[in-house]
Amino acid sequence: MQWGQSSDEKLKISPFQQKLIFSENEFVLACCGRASGKTSGVTCRLAKRNVDYGRSAMLIAPTFGLIRETIMPATQEWFEKFHVKYKANLSEHTIETRYGKIVFLSGTRPDSPRGYTNLEDFYCDEAAYVPKKAIKNGLLACRSNKGLSTTQCYTSTGLAGSYFNKMAKAPPV
Predict the structure, then answer these.
(1) How many CB atoms lie within 10 A of CB 23?
(2) What is the three-state SS of the chain?
(3) Higher pLDDT, 89 or 14
(4) What does the alpha-carbon distance between residue 90 and residue 137 come to, in Å, rounded to a whole number?
(5) Which of 35, 100, 150, 173 has a beta carbon 3.0–4.6 Å from 142's, enabling a disulfide?
(6) pLDDT tens-digit profile of 131-152?
(7) d(Cα 41, Cα 101) in Å, to the nearest integer?
């Protein structure tokens, strides 16, 4: 079975989401309007890379509410669509599959990423609203013992003067 198609039905993925999900670049920035599919695209990318490449990941979002209500359920939905067994721990904000672990952290606690290691992928959803220190600590925590380089994926709506927009002025992707 291929990504973007389940055994039950074909999934509708926009061209923008296809670029986000299937990009093999190590640094991806997506700055789009509200309700454009950024979170759905990034959670599919996270699930796809976990299953296809066995990559563990950290995702930082502005609040735990966003993580619990939107991001974790969207990630679980992708695993369910493709019949991948997972174990979600809502109190610890983690999802584990046989391929790796996904840690979801809030930008409201910028020092919390320091406690994690052996993660290969770093995601920041709604990056314009996440403190720079949380992003820095998250990137420092994502060091794999497998010798793999850390990939970075950021999504956000535009917010004038944010750290994300300064980063996105001349994106490599």
Answers:
(1) 15
(2) CCCCECCCCECCCCHHHHHHHHCCCCEEEEECCCCCCHHHHHHHHHHHHHHHHCCCEEEEECCHHHHHHHHHHHHHHHHHHCCCCCEEECCCCEEEECCEEEEEEECCCCCHHHHCCCCCEEEECCHHHCCHHHHHHHHHHCCCCCCCCCEEEEEECCCCCCHHHHHCCCCCC
(3) 89
(4) 22
(5) 150
(6) 888 988 888 888 766 666 788 8
(7) 19
